[in-house]
């Protein structure tokens, strides 16, 4: 199947079935989204949503965050991954927002990346979700699913981003980010993708490659080989156990 066809099927499926896909992080304004996205690195959205209500209550504005320090912020975020670093990042981010950007979240990707704790991925999320910029953030799910589906063939997040930007219509980039994340989070999971319940099998490159006749025969042969080895191991264990038992019996009789 041609790559252009995969993109067409991808867009058709998700536009029809998930036209309102959005981030699972809870937030009320750009500042809160920025804080939540910084916190969500290497952590689940569910965990972040558990701690942000109290955090936002204590630090409702960049000024409030800027007036605090990492030690206090830490006490609100101790249950997320890497709390020490993230507390330092949030403290620095609050100060820079106030001092350099007039307490407003900047819209440019380069400006966003100047903020502590904000890398390219976070900057792209903010730029696309808040400012509708033609950008797509590539996290581990986007990276994996885009490669498996055959939308891209790339070994770095930046290369994935460039290929997606090149091939997807500009006005679908922001939502495509959520489609790929959600699909990766719930169906096309990292270790064992749930292809048996996936609605995208018919245009997925990974599925195509792993379900040809020869791939299935190879998988079956491997399964049989493993079963044979397990049987052999079990028989050897039984023999060894029996020999040990006989040796103990013999010693007892002597
Ligand atoms: S068919 Fe399998 S590999 Fe392809 S997108 Fe679906 S779950 Fe992922």
From TrEMBL:
One of its GO terms (biological process) is base-excision repair, AP site formation. The keyword Cytoplasm does not apply. SMART domains: ENDO3c (SM00478), FES (SM00525). Residues 39-186 form the HhH-GPD domain. The keyword Metal-binding applies. [4Fe-4S] cluster binds at residues 188, 195, 198, 204. Keywords: 4Fe-4S, DNA damage, DNA repair, DNA-binding, Endonuclease, Glycosidase, Hydrolase, Iron, Iron-sulfur, Lyase, Metal-binding, Nuclease. GO terms for molecular function: 4 iron, 4 sulfur cluster binding; class I DNA-(apurinic or apyrimidinic site) endonuclease activity; DNA binding; DNA N-glycosylase activity; metal ion binding. DNA repair enzyme that has both DNA N-glycosylase activity and AP-lyase activity. The DNA N-glycosylase activity releases various damaged pyrimidines from DNA by cleaving the N-glycosidic bond, leaving an AP (apurinic/apyrimidinic) site. The AP-lyase activity cleaves the phosphodiester bond 3' to the AP site by a beta-elimination, leaving a 3'-terminal unsaturated sugar and a product with a terminal 5'-phosphate. PANTHER family: A/G-SPECIFIC ADENINE GLYCOSYLASE/ENDONUCLEASE III, ENDONUCLEASE III. This is Endonuclease III. It comes from Mucilaginibacter pedocola.
